[in-house]
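anyone else get weird line breaks when pasting these?? whatever heres mine. first is seq + tokens for prot A
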Amino acid sequence: MADKPRDPLTYRAAGVDLEARQRVVQRYREVAKRAGRPEVLGGIGPFAGLFALGAKYHDPVLVATTDTVGTKGKLAALLGPSTGLRTGRYEGLGHDIVNHCVNDAFTTGAEPLFFMDTIVSADLSDDAKVALVKGVADACAALGVALLGGETADMPGVYVPGGFDLIGFVVGVVEREAVIDGSRIAAGDLLFGLPSNGLHTNGYSLARQALGIGVDAGSAEADRRRLERFEPELGETLAEALLRSHRCYLPELRPALSVIKGMAHITGGGFEENVPRMLPEGPSAGSGQRLGARLDKRAWPVPPIFPFIQRAGSIADAEMYRVFNMGLGMVFAVAPSDADHVRALVPEALPVGEVVSARGRGQRVEWAT
């Protein structure tokens, strides 16, 4: 007996709807209009975005960086109804990815010029995709950054149902003579920091494990109730504490760029990985000494979400400071003679430590006792 003929296979049946993608791209064009700059040539839709630097710069250096919101998106997806959509949560992730990438680029002193995003998922709804791009566009507009374009990829079989990622890419520019690369940092320089408002966009895999949220596919409803429950210790719901958008430090620090010698954005890897990245790799040019950083944990307030996570997961102090920002989102170095000037320009800046001579290979963080 002959096999029954199969119905013709289509891309839609395989999980990718080309017509839906065209509809959502048109919606992207509308929300992206709010994030433009005069240097942009064309708009959303061509195969590549065009941005004209013009004659504004004398010796421009382009700066580029990319990152992802990671598993923070899993928490946002848990909070919606059955579709996984709560527009405000998804828009917040758009702010996260822009602010994270801009902070990274800004550590060089660069002005961010344009941003591009990529959304990858198995079955994310069109409304959720548009909400993500709207958040990206709003964050770009707030910082004067052009949203130059992006990509949406449907990848069933690679991403699990309900899973997605939001990836960002930013390009900035800085005059070569104004590049901040840490080469002028010397022993005795002071370290200042700016507070974070929570986890920002890092450490969510550990936080979710500690809190038992988003780790069991069959517990979505229980996870949602836990996230939306008011926690007296936090003064808010767990969802509000965990999903607060990543802070951008460009507006506060831009006025002080001329006296800042180095900046470290405290993201994945916490203090041990990120603070050394702003220090010279070898002996400093000024003294010939290898340098490290001494930080004082008592110098800044730790938001309550961190001890909440720590107790829930019985996490050691060292691991907390190695994974999370612990309430300090940006650290920067200045000469002692510029300290008062920095305090006047950046009132929120806190003195958190100093640059010290280091034994061995240098570029290490030690903690004041």
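and prot B, same format (seq, then tokens)
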Amino acid sequence: MKKKTTKSALYRIPLCKPYISKEEEQAARAVFRSGWLMQGPKVAEFEKLISDYVGTKFAVAVNSGTSALSLALMAVGLHGGDKVLMPSHSFVATANAAVHRGGEPVFVDIARGYYNIDPSKIEAAVDKWAHVLMVVHQIGFAADMEPIMSIASRHKLVVIEDAACSLGSAYKGRKTGAFGEVACLSFHPRKVITTGEGGMVLTNSEKIAGIVRSLRNHGLALTGKSKQPQCEMAGFNYRMTDVQAAMGIAQFRKLDKIIRLRTRLAERYRDKLSKLQALALPKWPEGSIPNYQSFVVEVADESIDRESVLNYMTQEDIECRPGIQPIHREPAYAKKGINENLPETIRAAERSFFLPLYPAMTNQEQKTVIKCLKEAVNKHARTKEAR
């Protein structure tokens, strides 16, 4: 019997699985045969495809979504001591990028059921040191950008969209990533399309795009009459390779299909689970369309212990995960005593959990998940209404 080597292989039904096939292998092989492996024509092609799709003038590929966040903050002129408003309900990279640039994260609560920053809570967090508003489109759901952009304009805040999870999601006819001064994407395997590791900065500003291009390549740029690139600023080696970009191009060509498959699965979840009063399903702003990067549910019946439900699913060889760990509860931030008055963020962290969802998921696999989840809820419910 072949030994299982990956975490997902431990489960009969994993939480997620990249949608990879022979096209990605063939694309990578073509790059290998070309002899040009580092950043080159495939990176430029990938950038053009993404910028055209999202609707921005410029796209700059980098080696990770975290690098994209860091370079975006540098490019918009974040200085030491500047405050960066953001939700705590996000992966820790959102705050880490700000801290590494000398910024101070200021956490704003989310709206119940929406899992994104609550526009009505933003203004209370604004003071004279607030410089950037980092909007995270979490779990593939668009944040409510109309009031957010209005608030940002009123207070002269630079909007950076952390769109790591939301490529393909839309809000009132525009793709996420097309609203702020800058947006950042991730192509980690948990995302809708993947390059293994990788990220991208999107912007309509030629100046910002130029700064990011220079910074990703050691700060080198052509300036003045020089025919050779010169180091204009202390930069980094954050380049994406042509191998990764070739894989990304093959993935991009499947993007509409991937979102369609995810949507079909998500709609089935919503249909079948809406009948369980013990669970609450996610919401999104009117006029927006999610890409269903993940599918999250929340235990609404407080008599049910979420961990018991997760343990039951695990025993059935189904991988489910607890909701997002708030950044302000991570040890690196908790010891600073940063803004702990985030009740909806805490509620989501303690009551929500992720269900398996991936494009290649079969109808039978999903039926099994739904059946086991209903069994888990009913087994651990103490109230008749939960049944």
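btw re prot B: The domain at 256-386 is CATH 3.90.1150.10 (Aspartate Aminotransferase, domain 1). The first strand starts at residue 58 and ends at 62.
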